[in-house]
Design goal:
Helices cover about 20% and strands about 25% of the residues. By secondary structure, the chain is an alpha/beta fold. The chain folds into two domains: about 325 residues, Alpha/Beta hydrolase fold, catalytic domain (Rossmann fold, 3-Layer(aba) Sandwich), CATH 3.40.50; about 200 residues, no CATH class. It has a seven-stranded parallel beta sheet with strand order 4-7-1-8-9-10-11, with helices on both faces. A six-stranded antiparallel beta sheet has the order 14-13-16-17-18-19, with no helix packed on it. The chain has a five-stranded antiparallel beta sheet with strand order 15-12-22-21-20. A hairpin with an 8-residue loop joins strand 16 and strand 17. Helix 4 crosses helix 5.
Length: about 525
Amino acid sequence: MPETEEVTRHPQPIVLVRGYGGLRVEDEKRNAYQGFNDGTVYPHRRGENYIYEGLILRFLKSEWRFQDATNVVNYYGRVREEAVELPEDLQGLDAGCFSGHKIVIDPAMALRLIRQPEDPCRTLWVFRYYDLDDREFRVYAEALVRLIQFIRALVRLKTGHETKVNIVAHSMGGLIVREAVQMVFCQGEATRAINKIATLGTPHRGISFQVVKRWIAIDGADELERFNPDFQENRKNQESYLNFHKHFPVERLLTVVGTNYQAYGTRPASWANRWFGAEGEGGPTYNRSDGLVKQISAQIPGAPRTFVHKCHGGEDSLVTSREAFEIITRFFFGNIRVRLRLVDALIKRGRDAFGRSEYFFGVSVKPRRVDFELFHQSKEAENCYGPFRERDLSDAGVAFAWAGGGRLIWEGWLDTRAIERDPENKEKDLVVRLECYVSERDTRGIGFSDNVIFSGQVYVRALLPTARRGLSLALHTSEDFSQSQFKKKMKPVEEGWQFSVGDRSFEGTLQLELERVPEYGPPEPLVWRAGEGKDQP
């Protein structure tokens, strides 16, 4: 297909970019897979959900091929001026990839990749920027852009088709990706070269405390400056997160936000995050961070985001978690986009009679058969929406506001293709569990703190369209879907489906919106109802 800015869920080459390595990076240079091979054991789960082997191995077990980018992109201390005589199989590649720059493509490796029989769109590329001797963001970004250009040229030469790349970047790796998008790519070129970007705990708005400012004349000083909130906030700076939307569609960026500061191994960073809070966060009362990066700092305005109850790095972190893998792969390849909104709410009981009450509202989302949440909010994560003072949760300017307009709670992606192919799932149903949580806190210290007003689970079950029926949705209060007494109605509206949750203390109306994601192009705003035809999501 011709080169286009159109987004796709078709498999594309994936580039992995690691986070900050520290003041000395010898150990990072010796780490072959840059941490993307590390997984996590989940001892309280069983079967396939017990051990997550890590992102790279999980992809390799799914017909993807690993390729270390350093074997392809070479770095020289000076510009390589001499022309390279290319063999016949490489004649279709731009000769400028192999000379005229410090960062060049290795002809022998390029020839080997051309002759490999595997699908070049199902390849993983680990971008090892610390193998470059110049510790400057501009150099890192230029090397990343040249790698992306080579990958695209490789696919074009082997298949005759254009492709983009998907990118997964952890921490500072996301800042390098932004440098490439906003400063190295020509205007408009990034949207044609990059399909989607997922960042894991990237400090897009900087880190709240700058304990590293005193380190100036050291290796990596340019890297440290990118963590400075003043640098990221500078509206005149094209690299600022505030200008990202001018260079790349924000709906094609997913920010995965960590919330478990308690599991982060660097204790001083965790405590500093509590004392050096973000504006409107509540000061030392809260620690809304992954241990290093504030939850609000890991987001970009307008871009989808999701919460994962993992810490910034190390063991049991955003990088090693099965949750992050499930979220990212659905973002890249999922065929349904889901939005969950709060339509209305009313807290009927639980207000403190003597103190000054504030309220919090949160939801967690978990799909059936994958025992991992795609979105997590809880008291422990300190990431529930609020604090609200109004009992209908209608306050304007809330410190920890909604995910988007119209009281958007969550925006995520699902994939029904495995269900449709599963011979054991004869009903072809998709089930998602929603866990709602409402709490109250007395800010004056007179009454109790963190009272639970409401906590409950409901199951949204979708019967997928078949040749004999359209799509229909129902709400259940139990996993026993055969019992009608556990089944509640969902009201179809123009935008989607509405349903109620609550008890004598709280009642609320939620709205679920579904969009079909075609193989190419933006999501289509469709609402499937029983008997409306055979549209397949």
